[in-house]
Structures are given as structure tokens and as C-alpha cells.
Amino acid sequence: MLFLKVGGEERWGSGSWLLARPLAFGPRVTGRPRLQSRRRERLGPPGSTPGSAMGSRSSHAALIPDVENIRRETGFSQASLLRLYHRFRALDRSKKGYLSRADLQQIGALAVNPLGDRIIDSFFPDGSQRVDFSGFVRVLAHFRPIDDDTGVRDPKQPEPLNSRTNKLRFAFQLYDLDQDGKISRHEMLQVLRLMVGVQVTEEQLESITDRTVQEADEDGDGAVSFLEFTKSLEKMDIEQKMSIRILK
Amino acid sequence: MWRGESPGPSWGPLLALVLVLTLGGLPRVRGFEEEPGGAHGASQGFQVVTFKWHHVQDPYIIALWILVASLAKIVFHLSHKVTSVVPESALLIVLGLVLGGIVWAADHIASFTLTPTVFFFYLLPPIVLDAGYFMPNRLFFGNLGTILLYAVIGTVWNAATTGLSLYGVFLSGLMGELKIGLLDFLLFGSLIAAVDPVAVLAVFEEVHVNEVLFIIVFGESLLNDAVTVVLYNVFESFVTLGGDEVTGVDCVKGIVSFFVVSLGGTLVGVVFAFLLSLVTRFTKHVRIIEPGFVFVISYLSYLTSEMLSLSAILAITFCGICCQKYVKANISEQSATTVRYTMKMLASGAETIIFMFLGISAVDPLIWTWNTAFVLLTLVFISVYRAIGVVLQTWILNRYRMVQLEPIDQVVMSYGGLRGAVAYALVVLLDENKVKEKNLFVSTTIIVVFFTVIFQGLTIKPLVQWLKVKRSEQREPKLNEKLHGRAFDHILSAIEDISGQIGHNYLRDKWSNFDRKFLSKVLMRRSAQKSRDRILNVFHELNLKDAISYVAEGERRGSLAFIRSPSTDNMVNVDFSTPRPSTVEASVSYLLRENVSAVCLDMQSLEQRRRSIRDTEDMVTHHTLQQYLYKPRQEYKHLYSRHELTPNENEKQDKEIFHRTMRKRLESFKSAKLGINQNKKAAKLYKRERAQKRRNSSIPNGKLPVESPVHNFTIKEKDLELSDPEEAPDYEAETSGGIEFLASVTKDTASDSPAGDTGSDTPLIGHSSPRGGSPAVSQQPPLPARLPRPHAPSPAPPENAAPVPAARSSREPGAGPTQGAGPERRALPGAHARSAAARRVHSRRSFQRPRARRRPALLKLASLQPPGPAELPPHALEQEETPL
Fold it and tell me: Using a CB-CB distance cutoff of 8 angstroms, which residues of chain A are in contact with residue B705?
């Protein structure tokens, strides 16, 4: 039998942090309100967050500036938006209300991602130096899984950000540095260089580049247009490959 | 320990003992409770050589078994085909069966079985400690809720349903006559219910499932121990009491005991982790036994909680989980390596032995009682109820989880519910007097274990593959698809990182605040506390792992060839690590060597590739891409691996990418902030590089042009610092050697390379300067580009002044690069080419000299604000570098 007494309740103190979380099942959303309100107190009054009511979920989503528009545009659920907003705030270290390149660059894992910097750049279109929450979410929205119930969409509405074409376009603009709508041989080479180990010689890289471009290039202009890009990947399950299921 | 009941003949010659292994005579080697046999009667008078088999018998046998098991592993891995299909655990079980069969055939007695004592006291702790110590904490705590639900509710569910269903079938009479009641069934259910950490790890190791799924199954198997222990104990005591005596109070006590056992075990683990961290904080002067503390104290946590009849597995798991951060920060690099390898070795060895002895133990006719219905139904019930349990719980969990568990995950989780040695040891522990059908339980458990480990272990890999490749078209993907597909993977993982896929930021923030403010202060060495920047941490860890895995390689290739190799990255490296004095320590020198060996590899493979370069068939291209495209994170970031310390390739990859990224960022930073015309500068650099190349025309250049700007300095630096691989261990051996090393690197770099280029590296120093505690990456890091500039030594604070003369005095004037001396500097570019060898000697010499006093200076240097007004004009830079 092992019904023995080991200490009293109060002694669990130092260990209980470990077990304090069992009640929050994994990454969870519903537990946010309480946490959020405390977080806000800690952070002080954030200038960019209207809405003072606390304690309920909706009021928290209301913390996010312009939440309805963002939601309509990106298709994120309120819970996801809230979560992303937390993430946004966490990344924004100096609490300035927007993210700079440096904020994103400090994510350690990105430094070991060969395309990390390009992706960071994609958050800052047209040479801007800051990205606000809606811009942040708009980029992420490309990676939202495609909804199952996309039956008939209003043709007048713009294509959702997470459509196949937009996913592809996102990838395309990572390659297309000069934004001329074509991936030139040079641009392709640059990407390859990023993605291939140093063991591969320059000659090899160039030959690979040539082959890649040739393979996709249909009109023979020595560059890959977006159309050609799409075509070369038509057999690929982009919808699945470019979606993150946590971004619902 | 190993039971030896056979009164076999005694042994004479040692040779026979060796033969025994192959001839199956082992059973006749008896346990130590036996009296020596007749052979010893022959010894009369003084003998020059005495043969004292009994003296060494037990340890000898143990050692031999371990040897056999280890050799078996070698044999298994001779064939890649076999091990890629059949999990090692299954092979070991089969080997055990064969060995047991041989032994039994020779002796008709089963001499060696896995006893609970050996298992619980010696074999299990290393495995669990290993699991805890290398636990990916963030992931684990991110999914703790899920894990706990599966571990607690899931296990109770499995136990109850399996036990009750078996009882139900028993009542229907299908099993025939058995002397068991409901409680026995429940007892059996409780011991068979728990998923076994050893088996799960052994199998999941080889099945590459996604990290969340892995951590859930893995965590569950670890944490369900508390439930198993409690259920087992409760039902065992109930069985002892007899079914009628059990009152409601006992049941309540049972539930209470669950909390006591689990929380108590955890607490014991945490307390010991605290102790361990604290102890390692003060081991600076006893480096040699440092690793020992980790093992001894963790083991004590296990024993302590066993003594208090708490959950020992929980205790040692949490001991490992909690201490890892502090221990890793506190102990020296070498100790950390020792700990890692020893832990892996112990765990892997223990696992090997466990599975082999599971096989051997099964060969004992005495324990076999067959009851077809019981065995088969058990198998069916545990599989079915596990599946049902998983589905039900997942359904609940998915309402709360951000990362949903998809049906495929559920299938894998259900199917991955392997039972193993814990169940076996528990069932062997049963008291035959109380549990009448113990033998039936034992044989059923063995069947279940074998079935799950061998059959499920064999099939889970194909299953996972099959489930994932739902729409597998068998066609060679086009080049574009391959390339872009890989790019998409990278993009995806980057986006995941940006969106912070594993939530819980609030609690984590809270905890890390607490940790930073209090715990780390108490548990970490002061030097270790200073510099903990996120990105640096990532980089640092990469470097460490990297370095460690490459040391061996460097050693093997210990030649001077690398000195000349145009590897690029050292400077970034070195400077980057600079502000992490204590933890980096020797790693920098490791690092350099690492780079070096990679470069060597490069050179060789380069030659080979040159030959075939004309052969640019599609196939080759595909192959190259296949081989050298960087793998996306998901594919390789294996969380926990018992058998492999570090996947070398991936470490290397990470480092390469990291360097590129950093260099690019620095360059763009420079051009943005300093207003230098990048193109112009790049052209200059290019020119210089060409010149350099001409000088070192023998160097095969396998690197990418992107990396060019820094590398000529790197070469010099290597010339200076890493003249000889054999030297490296010397300064590594010094505990505080790393920083001196850094210091000299920085100095040498500073004097060697004019301001403009030093700038490309040094912003990192500024940015990660430990001063000020908050490691925020400022948008405009200070421009330390100018700080080490020799022309302006004056602004250095007084602390800086002291060490420099000290450093200089260790060199002959003029021969080596010196800092802050104008005239000497004039001569430098010329001297560089000519007296490289001389300087090598000097720098090496100065290396080994302890220069502890330079540390503050370096830190100061690192955080110095730029004094001077502007850059040196670019042309100055070029003049300096013109070869004479």
C-alpha cells in the first residue's frame, strides 16, 4: 500500500508550475480571456488597442484594431486572429505597435531557414520598414488551409488570399526579386544558391538553373513567367503543400 | 540479478567460457549463490596461476551479455535493408528468443531472465533519464494538457475496459475454468494498459512522425507511469485483501494515492533537479567528476521516490526535464559532451539489453500457460479499447486544441500503443500466492509485448507511410516541382515560426520571467547568466551540436590542409559567440575545426565532382538536388532520438544557412546604415578577392560567391589561430580558454582587417552585447565596426588598456598582429604574407597562456560605443590589402 503522506498541499508550490497547465489542453484558445486581461494589465495601456471591456472572448477580439475588416479579408477565425495578435505583440518587443525587420529577424529558427530572409522581406512590400497587424495577418492568410465548403463563390468578390493562385503568387514573388513578373535565370540562380548546400559547385548550380528554367520556360524568353510557374507546378498539391493547419 | 539455478559442472579453462557463448553452454554458468564445484578441489599447494572463475563469475557474465547484445547491434546494422524494415527492438527480441532457445536446448533450464529488480533499478532509469534530459521542453509543455489526458484518463480507461471486458468474457465461460475474480482481471488490465516508454521510443524512433504526434505518444508513455503504479498497487492490495474487504474508503484512498504518487514523484524530481543545478553551479574546480553529478543525483531522485513509493519514472523524468537548462549552462563543454554521450550510451545499452532479455525470458516452459481465448481476447481488447479511447479523447481535445489531431494522427496513436518491458516486469512481480493465475498473466503479457513490439513495430512504418502517401503517383517529379516543392517546405516552416505555432505565450512568458529573475540567478553560474540572447541561443546550440559532432571528423582529418581552405564563415562565427563567454568557451575552437573539416570534405568531393561535371544528365541534376537541397525543418528536426546524438548533415546545413543569412543581413545593414554604395564596395571586395585568389591559386574554391567578402580575412585568421588541429584540444582543455581564444581572434582580426570589413561582423557583438540584460535586437545596433580599429585605441576604457600590453608581451614585436600600435601596423600587410608561419607559432603560443584578465576587456570591447566619426575611406582598405 502506498497511501502515504508526503508533505502538505502548500508544499507543492515549487512544483506546481509544471502541473499548472494540465487544465489548458495544449495550445488552446478558450483560456485566453483571463490571461489576456492580465497580460494587458502587465503591458499597460496599449495605445493601439481600442476596447476596454475585458473578461469575455469577444471583447478580446475587439482589442485588435480593425478586427472585422481583417477577418473578412483574411478569413481567419476570431480565435486564430486573437492568437496571432498575441504572437504579433510578442514579436513586437519594444511595443511600438508594428513590426520591423529586426523583430522578425530575431526569430531564431528563421536564421537557419534558407528562405527566411526572403520571407521576412515579403512582410515588407514596396520597401516599407514596418508592418502592422493587418499586414502581418494578410501575409499569413496565404497559408490558411483552403476551406472545404468553397462551393460557389461570388465571382465579384476578390479571390481569397488562400486560394491556390494566391499561394502560388506568394511563392512566385519570393523568387521574383525585381518584380517584373518573371523569374529570370539570375533570380532562379539566387534562390538555388540559397537552397543548395555549399558542396555544390557554381557550375553545377548554373547548370541546374538552366535546366530548371528551360523546363518551365515555354515561350523561350529565358525566364519563367507566373503562368509558366503555375503550369510547371500544376500537378502539385499546392493547396495542401502551402497550408498550415493551425492557421484556420 | 541473473538467476542461475542449474547445478552445472564447474568450469575450468577460460577458453571454455568463451566457447560457451557460441555453443550454448551459458546456462551452466551459475549464479553466485552456488557453491563452487569439484574442479577447485584439484588445487593443492601453491599455484602459479590460479583460475578463479567463481571469483569473477557474476560480473563476468553480465559483461558478456552486454557484449553479446552490443555485438548483435553491430550485426544488425551491417545490413541496412533489414534495419530499415524491421525495428531493432523486434530484432533484439528475436535474437533473445534464439539465444534463449540455444541456452535452453543445451541445458533445459532457463537461467537468465529479466528480473524486475534489474529492470527497475538498473535498466529503466537510464532510459527515462535520457528521455527527460533530452526532452524538447517547449513542445512537451506546449502539449502537456493533451499528454496528461492521454496518460491519465487514457490509461485508466484502458485498464478498466480491458479488465472488465475480459471479466465479462470470463463470466460467459469462454475461457474455461480459471481461478480468478474481478479484481485479478482489473489488476491484469492495469498492468497491461500502460503504453511502454521503452517500446514506444524504440519504435517511434524509426518512424518519422510529426513532432506533435511524437511528443504526445512519447509523453504519454512516460507520464502514465504514475497511473500504472497506482492502479497496480491499488489492485494488488485489493487482491490481497480479497474482494469482499474492499470498502469505499479504500477506493477513495486509491484516488488520493494517485495524486500523491504523481505529484509527489514530480516534486521529488523537481527538488532533485534544483539540487543538481545548484551543485553543478559550483563544480568549476572539479570538472572531471562534473558529469557524474548529473547521473548520481538523477538516479538518487529515482531511488528516493521509489523509496517513498512515489512514481519513480515521473521523478527522474522531471529531474531531467527541469535540470537540463541549468546543467547545460553550468557545466563545461567537455562535461556536457560526456553527459550527452554517456546518457545516450547507457540508455541505448539498457534498451538493447531489455529487449534481448525479454526474448530470452520468454524461453521458459515453466511460465507458459496457454489459454487461447484469454490471450487472443486480451490482444483484441487492448487494441480496440486503445483505439476507442484515443478517438474519444481526441474528440474532446480537438475542441480545445489549436493544432488539431487529425484522423491519421489518431490511427498512429492508437496503433502506436506498444506494451513493453514495464508490463512484463510488473507481471513478474506478482505474487503467485495471491494471484493464482500468475503464469497465465505472464504468458499473456509476453504475447502482448511481442505482438505489439514485433508485429505493430513492423507494420507501423509502412502504415505511416501509406497513410501519408494517400495519392502517391509513381513518377519522377520534374525539376521545377522538386525545387519549388522544397522551397514551399521552407516557406511553410518559416511561416510557422513567424506565426508561433505552439501557443501558450502567456504562461511561457511568465515562466521565463520568473526563471530569469530568480531561478537562473540561483542556479546558473554568473557567467552563464549574462548572455542569453534568443537568436544567439539558437546559434549557440547549433554550434555546439555541430562542433561536437565534427570534432571526431576533425581529429580524423587532422591535417594542415584546411588552413588554406577558403572557408568563409569563421569570423561571423567567432564574433557571434563572443558575448557568450562562459558557455561558448571551448566551442569556438571546436567550431573552427568543424568548419575546417567540412571544408576538407568539400575539397575531396569537389575533385570527384569535377571529373563528372561534364556529365550533366538530368539524372545527375536530380540527384544533386536531391542530395544537396536543404531539407526543410520538419523533415529533420528530430526531437528526441535515443540512438543518434545529432544528425550531422542537418547541423551543418543549419550553420551554413545561418551564416549566409547573417552575412546578408549584415551587408544590407551596412549599406543601409553607413550609406556605403554597396555595389562599389562589392566591386572592390571582389577585386581584392581576386587578388587573394591569385595569391592562393592552389585553393580550390567550392564556395559560393555570395560569401566572398569576408573570406580573405578568415583565411588569415585561420592561419593565425588554427594552425594545427592537434593544438586545439589544448586550449579546449582550459576551462576558461575559450574566451582568451576569442580575445585573440578579435584582436587579430581587428588588426588584420581594416575597419570596413570588420564591421561586417562586429555589429553582432554590439547587438548581442550582454550588457544591459535585455537582449532586444535594436534596429540600430551600435556600430562596433569602428571599435577595434587600431587607429583609435585611445577611446578604449582603462580596463582595456591593461590586457593589451599583456597580450603583446607574449608575442615578438612586429611579427604578430598587434593591436593599437600604429607603426607596427604599417608593416603588417607585407608581413602577413611572408611570416604567416612565424605568426602561427606565436599565436599558438600565446594561446595556451591563460589570459583570464582579458575577459573584461573583451566584453568592454564588445559593447563599446563607436568613438570615431566615420569609416575609413574604402581605398585605404584596398591599399592595406594589396599584396606586396
Answer: 202
Specify the pTM.
0.58
* Cell 536530380, located at residue: B622
Which residue has better confidence, B799 or B430?
B430
| Consecutive H or E run containing A79 | helix A78-91
Cα B296 to chain centroid, rounded: 20
The answer to whether B873 and B757 are in contact (CB under 8 A) is no
ipTM for the predicted complex = 0.75
CA distance B874 to chain A (A): 27
Interface of B with A in 675-704 (CB under 8 A): 702-704
CA distances for B61 relative to B18, B24, B54, B67, B820, angstroms: 11, 13, 11, 10, 67
- d(C-alpha B531, C-alpha B776), whole Å: 12
Are the beta carbons of B146 and A19 separated by less than 8 Å? no
- Sole residue written with cell 497550408: A243
Q: Which CA distances in Å does B180 have to B186, B374, B436, B525?
A: 10, 12, 7, 59
Rounded Cα–Cα distance for residues B130 and B296 (Å) = 13
CB–CB contact B253 A3 (8 Å): yes
Grid coordinates standing for B238? 485489493
Distance from C-alpha of B150 to C-alpha of B224, rounded to nearest angstrom? 8
pLDDT digits (tens, 9 = 90+) for A92-112: 878 888 888 888 887 777 777
pLDDT, tens only, B799-854? 443 444 443 434 444 433 434 334 444 434 444 444 444 444 444 443 344 443 44
Q: For residue B329, give the amino acid letter.
A: A
Contacts of range A184-193, beta carbons closer than 8 Å, 24 or more positions apart? A184/A222, A184/A223, A185/A209, A185/A210, A185/A213, A185/A222, A185/A223, A188/A212, A188/A213, A188/A224, A191/A115, A191/B483, A191/B487, A192/B483, A193/B704, A193/B706
Cα distances from B533 to residues A107, B315, B539, B721, B855, in angstroms, run 11, 30, 10, 27, 19
B contact test, residue of A81, A113, A234 with most B CBs within 10 A: A113
Min Cα distance B42 → chain A (Å) is 52
